[in-house]
Amino acid sequence: MIRYLLAALLCAVPVSAWAQFSVEVGAGVAQAGVRSDGTWYQNNLPHTIKSTSGAAELNLRWQFQPDASLIVGVVELGSYGVNSQDNPNDAAYAQHVSLPLANYVGSGHLWGVQALLERRWGDRWRIGLVGGLLAYHESWRMDVPNWFPSDPVGTKVWYTPRETVSGYMVGPVVPIHSSDQRWALGAIVGLTLSHCGSPWALSLQYVRDGAKFSGHQGGWPPIWKSHLVALVLYRF
């Protein structure tokens, strides 16, 4: 009973006395939303996708009102990858034309800096609504050691065909090794659940961290386009 009375008193402290800074850490898991069929994997052909990773964050929290906070911090969203056996000609794949397969192996990493606002409701148990921006850095490497060009028979090509398969000219093997990285701006929305007076909280966030792409451009984009992140938070 005394514990609940103290918690109620803490929650009733005036705004001016509540304004404070604290450090917050979080750890959990992130689930990537992967791009559609044809971007580094093909649904009808063998492939494996690593779409789950550990996640963590370190924040500085400014609680400027009893039910509102500004949160700035660093977010680690993890590493992801794909290993697939693909038809290297997108048009042939769409037409269900079988060509020799090429092995696509991709891997990448994602982290960023977030700036969020949180508004909480409730007395003993508090539900929070979180939203803000994420400046994120993503890197992606793609290796295709046995890629080869291919075009319909009769097309003027730059290579000397080594064979003809299902009406397509198949050229010599030209290994592909590409890597790229960039900064971009994304968005975060989420919910938190906490108990008044407790340093612990649960967080569930949707992170929009993938620009709009159609298919693929060289070795870009990464396999992911968004993330769902579940974290356990602790405030010091």
Mind explaining what this structure looks like?
- By secondary structure, this protein is mainly beta.
- It has a single domain (14-140, 178-235), classed as Porin (Beta Barrel).
- It is 8% helix and 60% strand.
- It is built from three helices and twelve strands.
- The protein has helices at residues 2-11, 15-18, 90-94; strands at 20-34, 47-50, 52-65, 68-86, 102-121, 125-144, 150-152, 163-165, 168-170, 176-195, 200-208, 224-235.
- A hairpin with a 4-residue loop joins strand 10 and strand 11 (200-208).
- It is elongated and about 75 Å long.
- 25% of the residues are buried.
What is the structure about, briefly put?
This protein has 236 residues and is mostly beta strands.
> Main sheet?
8 strands, antiparallel, barrel
Average pLDDT reading: 90
Per CATH, what is the topology? Porin
Spatial order of the strands in the main sheet? 1-3-4-5-6-10-11-12
Helix fraction by DSSP (H/I, runs of at least 4): under 10%
Rg over CA atoms, rounded to whole Å, is: 24 Å
List the helices and strands and how they pair.
Blueprint: H1 2-11, H2 15-18, E1 20-34, E2 47-50, E3 52-65, E4 68-86, H3 90-94, E5 102-121, E6 125-144, E7 150-152, E8 163-165, E9 168-170, E10 176-195, E11 200-208, E12 224-235
Antiparallel strand pairs: 1-3, 1-12, 2-4, 3-4, 4-5, 5-6, 6-10, 7-9, 8-9, 10-11, 11-12
Question: Notable features of this structure?
Answer:
single chain; 236 residues; mainly beta; Porin; eight-stranded antiparallel barrel; three-stranded antiparallel sheet; 12 strands
